[in-house]
Amino acid sequence: MKESKPTLADLRRLREAPAQAAAQAQAAAKQAAAKQAAAARRAKVHQHLMAAAHQAPATQRPAAVPPESPSPAFALDAADCALFRQAMRFVQPLPDRGPRARVLSARDPDAILQTRRQHAQGDATQPWSQIPVLSRQHPQTSQAFDPEATEFLQAGCGTDLLRGLHRGKWTPQATLDLHGSSLEQAYERLDQFLGSCLAHNIRCVCIVHGKGFGSHKGKSILKTPIRQHLCRLEAIQAWVECNERNGGAGAVIALLRMPDPNQSPP
What are the residues facing 205 on neighbouring strands? Predict the structure, then answer.
């Protein structure tokens, strides 16, 4: 194997090597000297504080164990207290800005909360049969459903509803999770959920139907039927697919049409 001839760069590195080694040794010596000087200063301060603590009058010395202290094992020595005060002499307390403001969500009226509590306890005076019945559109008047659609707007509603849902103008006040339900159970739970929301004046809801990751074929069984069912309900004004943070393709946010308060129930 042919050996390479030394170049000018190699000669320059050989010439500069002693100077670099001397500079590194000098820097290491300075760093070691600085560490030793700092350690000596700390030791001197500690000795000064210890001497001052022992020379202080007995009336000014803090008691090693306060009489009222329930646990003498945790009492500090006078020298340790003096050293701590010396180390904390530049510490300043934080400014008092008062208590933090608590973010309170809109609270439902007491009557609605009492009704929900009675239904949960099973002694409700108003049965679930009094929940508004959801009316469905006639198949001939309903819009054609696109399984790949990510939004829906009921006929006669303005496009500002879709823009408001996309921008987060309405926040879901109730959520229904249909995971683990069969298609018939999902229809029944969805109708009861929407009817309860209408009865309690809840307009914006979130419906989770899943993406199908846990299904047998990896395809959602509820996604297309549930979305098509929502399109057929007159109570649904619009719905949009959630963003990835709130469920993505596995959930929708729907806007309900509030019943007319002047109209008497059927």
Answer: 174, 254
Mean pLDDT of 212-223: 76
What CATH number does residue 235 fall under?
3.30.1370.110
Cβ neighbors of 18 (< 8 A, separation 6 or more) are none
Q: Say if residue 229's pLDDT is above 50.
A: yes
221 within 8 A of 183, measured Cβ to Cβ: yes
16 is a domain residue = no
Q: Which range of residues forms the domain containing residue 244?
A: 160-258
235-248 in b/e burial notation, b at 16+ Cβ within 10 A?
bbbbbbbbeeebbe
pLDDT tens, residue by residue, 26-55:
888 888 888 888 888 887 877 777 776 666
Residue the block writes with tokens 């297309």:
224
Contact 208, 177 (CB under 8 A): yes
Kindly give the pairing relationship between strand 204-208 and strand 251-256.
antiparallel
Residue 186 lies in a domain: yes
Split into its structural domains, the chain has a count of: 1
- Does residue 39 belong to any structural domain of this protein? no
DSSP at 235: T
Interatomic CA distance for residues 43 and 33, integer angstroms: 15
Residue 181 belongs to some domain of the structure: yes
What's this model's pTM, rounded to 2 decimal places? 0.49
